Amino acid sequence: MTRGGGVTRGGGVTRGGRAGRARQRGAGARARLMPLALVLLLSAEPGALAELASGGGRIKGSVSGDGRKGLVAAHVAARTALPDRDLVCLTTTDETGGYLYESLPPGTYELRARAAGHAEGRYADVEVKPPFRNILDFRLRPEAGEADAGGGESTSGPGMTPPGSAGESRPTPAAAAGTDGAPVPVTGRIIGPAGDPVPDAEIAFSGGPPPGQRLVLSTPEGRFSLEGLVPDTYELSVSAPGAIPIRVAGVKVRAGRPLEVQVRLADYPLEMAARRGIILPPEAPLPPRRLLEIPPPPPEPPPAPADRSQAPPPGGPPAA
């Protein structure tokens, strides 16, 4: 045994015994931490693991009213201007008042929420940086006032031009249309609450120049595409069986900027069957039924009398 050394089993002498024991303690601590990290990884939220794997950002939250009760079927729209295209994301709140966006590309987003009978809520300049997630809750006020969840006054409508990157000015509607009337390609995808594709969903762009409404159905993979829309302002509606329909006005198609639309539908709650007015506009009353009376057919005319002058005699033709 030497000073500063350690005695090994079997009589051998080692140098740096204190440093060796420190290294052993460090290795033991790492060995104890590895199972803990594995447990934390396995117990993580499945959506977070998928988010890390896909590299996309995530925004989740809720929409509530004055009573802090979740508002069902509220529309939540997220918009951003990516380097190569404009991106519009649409969804509705579920039966709990919650909403969710996943697999978002990094960028600066603007979020708006609107529910029937409530003023619009707005978050401006929301930074999405994968793999981090943003939690944004809206608390909407009655229609008499303007709710601004982002801390600033909202002066534009729900369909304003997607915000640009830092230093880029936001064009006016006239400038957004531009002088170039070349059609702009529009693509997108429709998914359900679990992220699965929704086939045969109806996507309609209304308004703008002729020919008027453009209607397309989603493919079995939930995707859709339009050959092109003339730069203008449109109303976008999306519907699918069993899902809460979405209708958003003021969707701007800008000249030279392809548009991508991502829609996440929420299931139609069964308890809302008696409250369809919060989703669809009230229907006009039907006129009273009137029985259609079909007049009887006119009587058939009597048969015309036969011409007896050319009729053979009663006894038959005369013998030759």
In short:
By secondary structure, the chain is an alpha+beta fold.
Q: Could you please describe the fold and organization of this structure?
A:
- The structure is a single chain.
- The chain is elongated, with a radius of gyration of 36 Å.
- It is an alpha+beta fold and 320 residues long.
- It is built from three helices and 17 strands.
- The model is unreliable at 1-15, 33-53, 150-179 and 274-279 (pLDDT under 50).
- Strand 4 (75-81) and strand 5 form a beta hairpin.
- The longest helix has 26 residues, at 17-42.
- The strands form four sheets. The protein has a seven-stranded mixed β-sheet, with no helix packed on it.
* Structural class label: alpha+beta
Low-confidence stretches: 1-15, 33-53, 150-179, 274-279
End-to-end CA span: 162 Å
Biggest sheet statistics: 7 strands, mixed
Strand order of the largest sheet: 8-7-4-5-17-11-14
Shape: elongated
Please give the share of residues in helix. Answer: 10-25%
Overall radius of gyration: 36 Å
Return the string of H and E elements: EEHHEEEEEEEEHEEEEEEE
Helix count, DSSP H or I runs of 4 or more residues:
3
Mean pLDDT: 74
Task: List strands and helices in order, with pairings.
Elements: E1 6-7, E2 13-14, H1 17-42, H2 46-54, E3 57-64, E4 75-81, E5 86-92, E6 98-104, E7 107-114, E8 121-128, E9 133-135, E10 138-139, H3 173-177, E11 184-191, E12 202-206, E13 214-217, E14 223-229, E15 233-239, E16 246-252, E17 259-264
Parallel strand pairs: 3-9, 3-10, 5-17, 11-17
Antiparallel strand pairs: 1-2, 3-6, 4-5, 4-7, 7-8, 11-14, 12-13, 12-15, 15-16
